[in-house]
Amino acid sequence: MRVPEMRYIIARAASNPLDLMGFVSFQILHEETMDDDIMAQAAYCFELQLVPNARNQGLGEFLMQLLERIGSYWKMDKVMLTVFKANKGAIRFYMEKLGFTLDEISPGACLSALQARRFDYEILSKPCNP
């Protein structure tokens, strides 16, 4: 949390601004692509954390939509994140609810199924709209 380039969007309760409900941390990065000559500009989500009573209320979706808007504003190519394969709830949230897909550099997208099984994570992304 002490990385100078890290940025945070912090959600507080409307009834009490001291009551923290969650946050999303992100950085603006240049990420590799499958083309060695091209780097993608990405708003990379490092963490999305919500207190238990703020979950399933739309707050996580709202925070990620804000990150998408930031990516669009700064003309990023995409929003990216890493998710553990074991975290089925997060995979459903990002892919089914928010429309993320496997990024081209994700193990599941660029390796054979046998090779991809060695990795415990996938990299997801979603294009930023202009």
Automatic annotation (TrEMBL):
The keyword Ribonucleoprotein belongs to this UniProt entry's keyword annotation: no
InterPro entries: Acyl_CoA_acyltransferase, GNAT_dom, NAA40
Cell compartments where the protein resides: Cytoplasm; Nucleus
EC number(s) per entry: 2.3.1.257
Enzyme class: transferase
Pfam families named among the record's database cross-references: Acetyltransf_1 (PF00583)
Catalysed reactions listed for this entry: N-terminal L-seryl-[histone H2A] + acetyl-CoA = N-terminal N(alpha)-acetyl-L-seryl-[histone H2A] + CoA + H(+); N-terminal L-seryl-[histone H4] + acetyl-CoA = N-terminal N(alpha)-acetyl-L-seryl-[histone H4] + CoA + H(+)
Segments forming domain N-acetyltransferase: 1-121
Protein known as: N-alpha-acetyltransferase 40
Native species: Phascolomyces articulosus
